[in-house]
Amino acid sequence: MYRSARRRVAGLGLLLAGLLVLVPVAPTGAAATPTTEPARTAVSRPALTANGIGPYRIGVSTRTGLVATGRVINVEEAQTCAGYYYAEATGRYAGSLLLKFQGNRLVQIITTDPAIRTRAGGRVGMTLAELEMRYGQRGAVEHGKWTLRAYVVPGGGDRIIAFFEGFSSEYVHQVSSGERDRVLASFVGGDDQC
């Protein structure tokens, strides 16, 4: 009995030793595989520019084209401005972007989502002073009706990005990009509120 127990233990020892030896080895001449994972890069979202963001391009994107491709939903004509339409973005921008069309042409993109940022890092929740530090001479504070203020950054031609201060707060509550006349229409007042 003592002998058979020794054989079983010895057999078990040989089996374990054999498993330890069966370590995968790269064939001769094959490149060694790295033992650490490659560094992960953050997934970046496209930046909001004066010309748009992602598939939404100011002056280029059309209401009918975006509807046909499923990139907008809830398209409604503006109640006070005949010929103007609002729509909500879909996909990665669902719940983050409101789009304004003049006729069929995209003229303005509006966001209140702090996750949407410009190339310089401007976003909802910043102060105008913080924006001035980021943009320097490229932008300027403009005054609207009712003592409202906005930080406006030209984007070339008639395009801008505007950061609107809240009514009772020093923090930006809305960022808008697009054609200057459309972005600032209700901010500056006057006859054209659309």
Describe the structure.
The protein has 194 residues and is of the alpha+beta class. It has 2 domains: 51-109, no CATH class; 112-188. Helix content is 22%, strand content 27%. It has helices spanning 2-21, 63-68, 128-135, 180-183, 185-188; strands spanning 52-53, 56-57, 72-77, 84-89, 98-102, 105-111, 140-143, 149-154, 159-165, 172-179. It has an 8-stranded antiparallel beta sheet with strand order 3-4-5-6-10-9-8-7. A two-stranded antiparallel sheet has the order 1-2. A hairpin with a 6-residue loop joins strand 9 and strand 10. The longest helix is centred in the N-terminal third of the chain and has 20 residues, at 2-21. The termini are far apart. The relative contact order is 0.13.
Residue-averaged pLDDT, rounded? 82
The major β-sheet equals: 8 strands, antiparallel
Using the CA coordinates, give the radius of gyration: 30 Å
Q: Low-confidence stretches at least 5 residues in length (pLDDT < 50)?
A: 1-27, 29-41
Basic shape:
globular
> Which class do the helix and strand fractions yield?
alpha+beta
- Give the proportion of residues in helices: 10-25%
User: What are the secondary-structure elements, in order, as H or E?
Assistant: HEEHEEEEHEEEEHH
Number of domains: 2
